[in-house]
Specification:
alpha/beta, Rossmann fold
Length: 394
């Protein structure tokens, strides 16, 4: 009996030790920015000891599931470019990577994630917001596979060690491109071709407008929705409607270059998105805010292969190069644009926040008081207020 008692005590000590190590803390990395705590200052978690993953750069297998394909010349094109850069930097071979293109959320997504697991993927990346519930379920069913979801918002609440959200702080690049537009406009009316009335889209065009307002207090903005992330024909129609309402600089949260092509045809200027769109509309496009997805992908693959614990929620900004501006169209931007953008970029790098009070919604109700600052609670953008100065057109 004495021996059994000793064994029981030892067993309880082991169970307690395992339970005490079962936290979900992240390992700080030297390159990416740590997650925002909501207090205005980033507080990295204490490092966890590395574990043997059993993976190497020669054996790791990666599957990337996309809602579209690179022919969109926008969002998917840039995500795929980020994956190609990651493969080159990390020395991954073609047989270590598989892509699934044009996969809609729903049954097709469930099938793609299952096929990726059966193929032997160690890391599965989902490229569009609608994959969230499907990836969460797949992560629960396959705990030995790491699931990385771009633009999603479920990982923090799920608390799974193999399910992660990541995104770039596009509001920062949007704000800078808004400065370019605010200086360029002659009618003081900007136009914005917006995909959906979602927080991600509203966050982006609000930051764009605030950037323009920072250099042009007389500017207003019209927003037209396409209700699709990739519908070139509708993007062109909405662009023309914005021009007909007096807008002379047209920005976009839409995947294709159609907005910029339509802006050039209408004789106005444009601000692209995702990809450098100057080649598509050299007589219209001033600059394009873009993601560099390879920044996160390289970090994530290295962390997983090295046995580290990846952040559940990652938001990378200008400081790590996760969001950038394309080259400027020097033939079209006004004098002083580069200097104004650089001054604002330095403020953002110094910790200055875009969404600061006083801000009011279109009904006149105060959203943020003087001195108040809005801080994203997670990687997925969550600002969903329509502020004064912005008008939605039908």
């Amino acid at each position: 009996m004495k021996r059994i008692g000793i064994l029981l005590v030892a067993l309880l000590l082991v169970v307690a030790l395992v339970a005490g190590c079962g936290n979900n803390e992240t390992t700080p990395q030297p390159t990416p920015a740590p997650a925002d705590t909501g207090t205005g200052e980033a507080t990295p978690a204490p490092p966890a000891p590395p574990e043997e993953s059993g993976l190497t750069m020669e054996t790791v297998r990666i599957a990337f599931v996309h809602g579209n394909d690179p022919s969109d010349q926008g969002f998917t094109y840039r995500q795929h470019a980020g994956l190609l850069t990651t493969m080159e930097v990390l020395g991954l071979s073609d047989d270590q990577v598989i892509n699934y293109f044009n996969i809609s959320p729903g049954d097709a997504a469930d099938t793609a994630f299952l096929e990726a697991v059966e193929w032997g993927a160690d890391i599965i990346i989902g490229g569009t917001f609608g994959y969230g519930p499907h990836m969460l379920e797949a992560a629960q069913l396959h705990p030995d596979v790491q699931f990385l979801h771009a633009t999603g918002n479920l990982a923090l609440g799920a608390g799974l060690p193999n399910f992660h959200n990541f995104f770039g702080d596009m509001a920062q690049a949007r704000y800078l491109s808004g400065i370019v537009a605010g200086l360029r406009t002659e009618t003081n009316v900007l136009g914005f071709v917006a995909a959906h009335p979602f927080a991600e889209v509203i966050t982006g065009y609000t930051a764009f407008y605030l950037g323009a307002l920072s250099v042009n207090p007389d500017v207003t903005m019209l927003v037209g929705y396409t209700n699709s992330f990739n519908d070139p024909a509708t993007e062109q129609q909405v662009t023309q409607a914005l021009v007909d309402h007096g807008a002379d600089v047209i920005a976009q949260h839409a995947n294709s270059p159609s907005t910029q092509i339509a802006a050039e045809a209408a004789g106005v200027w444009g601000i692209g998105y995702n990809n450098n769109m100057i080649p598509f509309a050299p007589n219209a496009t001033l600059v394009s805010p873009m993601f560099d997805w390879s920044v996160y992908l390289i970090h994530a693959v290295q962390t997983i292969v090295n046995g580290g614990q990846l952040e559940n929620d990652y938001l990378g900004g200008l400081d790590v190069g996760m969001v950038v501006l394309s080259e400027f169209n020097d033939a079209l931007i006004v004098e002083g644009t580069r200097e104004a953008v650089e001054e604002a970029r330095q403020r953002l790098l110094g910790g200055w926040r875009i969404f600061q009070g006083p801000l009011y919604d279109v009904s006149g109700q105060q959203i943020l008081a003087e001195g108040e600052v809005f801080i994203e609670p997670q990687a997925a953008p969550s600002w969903a207020y329509i502020i004064q100065g912005i008008t939605i057109i039908e």
